[in-house]
Amino acid sequence: MSAEQKAKAKAEQMKGAAKEAAGRTVGNERMTAEGEAERAKGDLRQAKEKGKDAVQR
To answer: Cα separation of 5 and 53, whole Å?
Structure first.
């Protein structure tokens, strides 16, 4: 996995998790859902990059 893409995926996961937690804390369902979506997007990006690494080996 390229270091840049790995960093982007991790940042997206952390941002989504923080947004999700903040949404739950204040009771904002929309913010919670947006956070979950961002975290899932980061998870998919990371899985895609891991797949690329596996194919290259």
So the answer is: 12
11: Cβ contacts below 8 Å, ≥ 6 apart:
42
> Rounded CA gap, 17 and 34, in Å?
10
Classify each residue of 20-39 as buried b or exposed e, where b means 16 or more C-beta atoms within 10 Å of its C-beta: beebeeeeeeebbeebeebb
Query: Structure pTM?
Result: 0.80
**pLDDT tens-digit profile of 1-15?**
578 888 889 999 999
**Residue matched to tokens 């999700």:** 20
Pick from 23, 19, 16: which is nearest to 41 by CA?
Answer: 16
